[in-house]
């Protein structure tokens, strides 16, 4: 099996130090295993996208010597593929229309006496499942994936090791098309990974929690499950994950090698010097000799 990896940023702003770690890790993993590295712009959430951010991200990657091996793909052009996947799920009984608002879900959970951790997402209580009355005359607001009752998903992350999650208890039936008509990340990423033949996903550790939902969708749609590796997070001075939402500063790429060395340090790789192509080559050699040995594909 030929290795095919990808880096899939959302164009909600410029790349920052944390996103460069994920980009470098995915690029190096592909190079270490003599595979292809693709870039996908995950702009499915249009209202959150910043005009021109996709072009800026591609320019930032190019400044760091990280170039996609195939033409870049934009999720905003993929609606027909996502609709076909949803139609299949509906035909199989693996998805259903939902009329619930967040307030409806909170009331249902309170009525059932279901505890919820503070700040945690509320697991969907199954209110609009067809066997419980469906929409009951209300208009559909969203579409949800029907999580099986026995939905403890186990997988092995190449860095984090064995992982499990009871999706029914932790999340419940999750949204695949939102009330505003936009496609949910979970469905879009699964469809695109399969369509592009992605065999290995390397991304930030904050996305590890999404993996079991994506595995359930892959199984329902008859799609292969890639190997997953979740990279260490870069934290800000306040101890929280660097992100665009909490004010992470865009990369200063006047000295691309300095930014790449910081990302390499987060990955446990030695600093490199010299012209950028030579630095990338030395990291690839280090990754092949050390990281790929510890985290085989």
Question: Would you summarize the structure shown here?
Answer:
With 297 residues, this protein is of the alpha/beta class. It contains nine helices and ten strands.
SSE layout and pairing:
Layout: E1 4-7, H1 17-32, E2 36-41, H2 53-63, E3 73-74, H3 79-92, E4 95-98, H4 102-112, E5 142-145, E6 152-157, E7 161-166, H5 167-170, E8 174-177, H6 185-195, E9 200-204, H7 211-221, E10 227-231, H8 256-266, H9 276-294
Parallel strand pairs: 1-2, 2-3, 9-10
Antiparallel strand pairs: 4-5, 5-8, 6-7
Cofactor: Zn(2+)
Domain Glutamyl/glutaminyl-tRNA synthetase class Ib catalytic: 4-249
Enzyme class: ligase
Can you give keywords for this protein?
single chain, 297 residues, alpha/beta, Rossmann fold, Glutamyl-tRNA Synthetase, domain 3, 2 domains, 3-stranded parallel sheet, 3-stranded antiparallel sheet, 9 helices, 10 strands
Q: How would you sum up the major sheet?
A: 3 strands, parallel
Run of helices and strands:
EHEHEHEHEEEHEHEHEHH
Percent range for β-strand residues: 15-25%
Radius of gyration from CA coordinates: 20 Å
Measure the end-to-end span: 10 Å
Shape: elongated
> What is the CATH architecture descriptor of the largest domain?
3-Layer(aba) Sandwich
Question: Which consecutive residue ranges, at least 5 long each, have pLDDT under 50?
Answer: none
What is the average per-residue confidence, as pLDDT, rounded to a whole number? Answer: 89
Domains counted in the coordinates: how many? Answer: 2
Strand order across the biggest sheet?
A: 1-2-3
CATH homologous superfamily of the largest domain? HUPs
Total number of strands: 10
Continuous helix count: 9
CATH topology of the largest domain: Rossmann fold
Summing up helix and strand content along with how strands pair, one would put the structural category as alpha/beta
Give helix % range: 25-40%
